[in-house]
Amino acid sequence: MSGAAIQGLWPVLLAVFAAAAAALALAALIGRQLAARHRARFEQAVGAQMRESFLFVDISRLFVLQHLLAASATMAAWLLTGRWQVALLVALGAGALPRFALRRIRRRRQQAFRQQMPDLLLLVAGGLRAGSGLGQALAQAAAEIDAPARQELGLVMREQRLGVGLDQALSALSRRMPVEETTLFASALRIGAEAGGSMAATLESLADATRRKLAIEAKVRALTAQGRLQAWVMGALPVVLALVLFAIDPVSMRALVDTWHGWAVCAGVALLQAAGVLMIRRIVAVDV
């Protein structure tokens, strides 16, 4: 190639280099904006759930830790299996892990609060029968009961000291603890504060009904425990069987993950198993 031809290529190469640099800079800018939005959404959603569960952790550190663990798990899955499909599934699972864990923590906290409701109602009713006002009875109950009811009542009392009305504080309590017992408790306090009457007797009657309901629910859970266990066994059986077959005859089972037919079969099995598990859980879910 002559020197004139080489000199003629320089503008083209410079133009290509400038276009590639501009595209790289644009991609970096877009990626940075998307990462900032993702972090803001993560901190807002997860932070709100953690505050509602009275878990006070630095959200920024949790964000970094979660992504480091997700990247490490994804890289480990890729190195161990050598398949990007498995690495992708691990990455998706690791990304959903914080919200799943927080949802489980919140559900367990709500169940613990439900179990405390009969004692809480009796404590408030006892305070009212002793001649205390509603605010004093709630404060005494918050001092005597354990968490999480103590935390929730303490938050209600702090909101009232800051000038929030009782109706708004009880509405906030119902939003934080969206269970039937909390709604009934808030309604009883609200009606008693507005209309008067024997609020202590109402709370004692509600405590007795709540205790009976929780006892019936415990009996139903004990009777349906076998059905729930069967659902989990049915859901885990194909995965365990596939792992055993991979360990026994990996050559024959390789078609299950190397071809699109195998992935279609895996997707079909996963959908059918999920439908079966959901149907069994709906059957054993008895409303009391």
Could you give a quick summary of the protein structure above?
This protein has helices at 3-52, 59-81, 84-129, 134-144, 149-161, 166-176, 180-195, 199-223, 225-248, 250-253, 255-258, 260-284. The protein is mainly alpha-helical and 288 residues long.
Overall description:
The structure is a single chain. The protein is mainly α and 288 residues long. The chain has three domains: 15-79; 109-214, Receptor-associated Protein; 224-288. The chain has twelve helices and no strands. The protein is flat. The protein starts with a helix and ends with a helix. The mean pLDDT is 78.
Architecture of the largest domain, according to CATH? Up-down Bundle
CATH fold-type name of the largest domain: Receptor-associated Protein
User: How many runs of DSSP E, i.e. beta strands?
Assistant: 0
- Strand fraction equals under 5%
Count up the helices: 12
Order of helices and strands: HHHHHHHHHHHH
Mean pLDDT: 78
Low-confidence stretches: none
Distance between the termini: 87 Å
Overall domain count: 3
Globally, the shape reads flat
Quickly name the level 1 CATH class of the largest domain.
Mainly Alpha
List keywords for this structure.
about 290 residues, mainly alpha, Receptor-associated Protein, 12 helices, about 0% strand
Write the layout of secondary structure elements.
Blueprint: H1 3-52, H2 59-81, H3 84-129, H4 134-144, H5 149-161, H6 166-176, H7 180-195, H8 199-223, H9 225-248, H10 250-253, H11 255-258, H12 260-284
Helix pairs in contact: 1-3, 2-3, 3-4, 3-8, 4-5, 5-6, 6-7, 7-8, 9-12
